[in-house]
Amino acid sequence: MAWQWYHDTFEPGEVHLHALTGVIATRKTKYQTVEIVESEHYGKMLILDGDCQSSVKDEYIYHECLNEPAMVCHPDPRRVLVIGGGEGASLRELLRFKSVEHIDMCDIDEEANQLYEQYLPEYHQGAFHDPKVSMHFEDAREFIERQPDHSYSVIIEDLTDLFEGGPSIVLFTKEFYQHAFRVLDEGGTLCVTSSYLKPTNVAIHKRILDTIRSVFPIARSLYSYVGAYDVPWSYILASKKNDPLDMDAATVDRILADRVGDTSALKFYDGVTHERIFRMPKDIRSMLSTPGEPLEDGKSFGIAPKGI
């Protein structure tokens, strides 16, 4: 078989290759280049500006880690804000929770969203049109700054990678997280995608963690291996009240049973998984333990795009 090869470049000396059997859709929008391709091993893959975002065969690992812990950690999650999340899989996960009354999803790229709705139904499963969901195609920083205090239970940041001069940088700064803290209710939780996490490079994750720690009383790293990325991928869960490290497997399973009901649709996350994903190995714990400077609006932080 004659394959095309997609090069997912992580560092100047590290490239991961995926064999592609076809291109489903491609479009250059106002904000990014969107490619939806068919890969030999992972099925449909979403690529933005040359960077792999997810695959249909294992996106559930990423999306369950990003969404479910924040929903379980909150005492009674009712109103949720999703920042980014264009392909709709975060909406799918959040709508599993019976307590949810309303979700605002704010993504800047409506043209890309139209592609996801057409070509990635396995991801969103119709969630864009759920009556509990309101879609907002605008700048998420401006959106959150307009929201009243204590208006959300949970905030999910499902964004592209952080790098110097990138489009999402203003959604990772101390000033942004101060707004997030303000609009969250008393038990509010926030979960953020925070790049890959491996001994040779923890810089992006640590900088986001240091920034969130400067605002929230509780900020915990978690991670999972995602095959399509071929690296351990990281997230940060911040909370005003409940610490995810205080929740054992039995507690998480009980909350899921109460709030989701039939948990058979969850392929990755449960109580045992919860305990595992928050346990960092010794080397990573050591690297993350030293204090660092938060990201702030208007200040350079020196992280180049992935692969440069």
TrEMBL record:
Biological or metabolic pathway of the protein: Amine and polyamine biosynthesis; spermidine biosynthesis; spermidine from putrescine: step 1/1
EC number(s) recorded for this UniProt protein: 2.5.1.16
Residue positions binding S-methyl-5'-thioadenosine: 32, 107, 139-140, 167
Keywords for the protein's UniProt record, in alphabetical order: Polyamine biosynthesis, Spermidine biosynthesis, Transferase
Reactions catalysed, as given in the entry: S-adenosyl 3-(methylsulfanyl)propylamine + putrescine = S-methyl-5'-thioadenosine + spermidine + H(+)
Primary enzyme class: transferase
Occurrences of domain PABS (ranges): 3-240
Pfam families attached to this UniProt entry: Spermine_synt_N (PF17284), Spermine_synth (PF01564)
Region span, Disordered: 289-308
Binding of spermidine, residues: 63, 87
InterPro entries named in the record: PABS, PABS_CS, Profilin_CS, SAM-dependent_MTases_sf, Spermi_synthase, Spermidine_synt_N, Spermidine_synt_N_sf
GO terms for biological process, alphabetical: spermidine biosynthetic process
Annotated GO MF terms: actin binding; spermidine synthase activity
Active site: 158 (proton acceptor)
HAMAP family reported in the protein's UniProt record: Spermidine_synth
Subunit structure: Homodimer or homotetramer.
Family, as annotated: Belongs to the spermidine/spermine synthase family.
Protein purpose: Catalyzes the irreversible transfer of a propylamine group from the amino donor S-adenosylmethioninamine (decarboxy-AdoMet) to putrescine (1,4-diaminobutane) to yield spermidine.
Protein name: Polyamine aminopropyltransferase
Organism (species): Candidatus Cryosericum terrychapinii
Gene: speE
